Amino acid sequence: MAMKRTKGDIVFDTINIFIMLILIVITIYPLLHVVFASVSDANLLQRHRGLLLHPYGFDLSAFKSVFDNPMISIGYMNTIVYLVVGTAINVILTTFGAYALSRRNLLLGKYIMFGIVFTMLFSGGMIPTYLLVKDLGLINSRWALMIPNAMSAWNLVIMRTSFRAVSPSLEESAKIDGANDFTILFRIFIPLSLPVLSVMILFYGVGHWNSWFSAMLYIRNRDLYPLQLVLREILLISTSDMTTTAAAGDNKANIGETIKYATIVAATVPILCVYPFLQKYFVKGVMVGAIKE
Amino acid sequence: MAAVFVKKGGKNNRFTKGLMKNIFIRDIVKNKYIYIMLVPVGAYYVIFHYMPMYGAQIAFRNYAPLKGIWGSQWVGLQYFKEFFSSYYFTRLLRNTLLINFYDILFGFPAPVIMAILINELRGTTFRRMVQTITYLPHFISLVVVCGLLTDFLAHGGVINNIAALFGGSTSSILLEPKAFRAVYVGSEIWQSMGWNSIIYLSALMGIPSELYEAARMDGAGRLREIWSITLPGILPTVVIMLIMRVGKIMTVGAEKIILLYNPSTYETADVISSFVYRKGILEAGYSYSTAVGLFNSIISFVLVYTVNRISNKLTDSGLW
Q: How high is the ipTM of this complex?
């Protein structure tokens, strides 16, 4: 555009950029605060008030305590198991369901689809689900975190939409060549829907990484705790204990504060590391979800 | 396909029944792999979604775990009446509605405005940067977000200190019932404003650039462009999103509430779902809490259904 920027344009752009900068600061500051605090010297940090614009002192001992804490490593390992196995179950079931329901000649397909979509709008509720999981003997079982949420209806709908967009002629010619439905799914549909599939994997994966509520409902055995539940204990439940030790004037309470920050860093860094590379997929995923068939 | 020709009922009932069975078996044989794929999915939905719906009938029974659903005594609407006449009913309803109301009032326009402003940014690099950074909080776990909030709002925390500069009290803000809704909605905006703007940004992409060029020719300023082109351009999306959001006005997820509230803020913070969790899971009042949850599910369902019909009528698009 060869149009000249008017005075009004310049004013507008300046204000706009200014607003955006403020937004960026508000978004990023809490995260920076955590990073700075986690590497600060505990005692110096304790005396500091207000915004933290750089680390106070430099001390990595909080990280050492974090990695020495057996619950953190247990949580990490468990979360990785839940994430890998859980996401695999999610993706396999979603793909199977989406493929089957994308068949236009599926007997009663419309009713099955309705039955699935209906679960997005109405559910039996937390307690009946809890009792069911209990009756199935899944309390204190790793499966309780991977089976009751084995797939999301929303993702199934998205995947199905994407499968329906695959040209039927491809499938017909494959059928003439004698391919069965599994072959067609894995050789034609999945390769053609890779963007959507990767979005699914990411959404399910992030969901497992961040999930804690079902673990709180179904898991009592601390050896099976996912990372987020361990985090909750450290960050939210122990608050009162921490303050009481602080009142006792114990120096350890100060380091307790930096340990909290170091724990947050340790638990969030994996997501933050992958995030920039995957961002465009995430965005694509939202777009895909926005398309209504 | 052949099922189209099958008439229901009538003289040929036995015949049609046999025919249907025949069609079904033939279909299974022909498409066995489809059925192999469908079985686990169907089983999952039946077991983990429809069984709990069936199990929700304990809301009408005095459920005793040892007796099971059927063995437990039928008590009709007793638990519903108990809930409606209890002190909790109005409190939970008020809290649920108010949190949603504030979230709609402040949290809903935020991503719309943000999308418009991002769309107006000229430099691509800066624009990318803004997007990357503001989408980020969406991926931070709720536990971490609430942990941060607790820390920042606590006595001696960052926000607390800043509030104290302006004459606020220095005691933990999370112990303050008056502040809870602001904390909840504010953090909600912090976490999801950027992410929620994506859908509006994609709607903005669809506005033809000729419109802007023509407006420029006519001497329109940027604000005028936003008002006359951008806003009308995303209005349909905004309307759908708003309608859908209003449909969820009876729903506040338990997770964040449970992470943030404490007995001193129950008065303003306790919502239906967190109450169900406390009564049901922690206090094992299964039937009562199921009744409360069922009440909420039914209202929510009716709301979403109604709202979707409205949306279909007004904008020709909805969830289904």
A: 0.87
Quick check: is B320 in a domain?
Answer: no
Q: Average pLDDT, stretch A57-69?
A: 84
In percent, how much of chain B has pLDDT > 90? 49
Residue A34: closest CA among chain B residues belongs to which residue? B148
Domain of residue B189 covers 79-315
* Spatial separation of the C-alpha atoms in residues B288 and B284, rounded to whole Å: 9
State how far the Cα of A207 lies from the Cα of B138, in Å rounded to an integer: 11
Give contacts of B 47-66 with A, CB under 8 A. Answer: 47-56, 58, 65
Q: Are B297 and B272 in contact (CB under 8 A)?
A: no
Give the whole-angstrom CA distance, residue B244 versus residue A114: 19
Residues A87 and A208: beta-carbon distance below 8 Å: yes
Asked if residue B143 and residue B278 are part of one domain, the reply reads: yes
Residue A72, pLDDT > 60, answer: yes
**Secondary structure tally for chain A: helices H, strands E:** 15, 0
DSSP code at position A221: -
Task: Enter the tokens of residue A134.
Answer: 């209990």
CA atoms within 13 A on the CB side of B82: 15
A41 phi and psi, to 5 degrees?
Answer: -75, 130
Decide if B302 touches A, using CB distance below 8 A: no
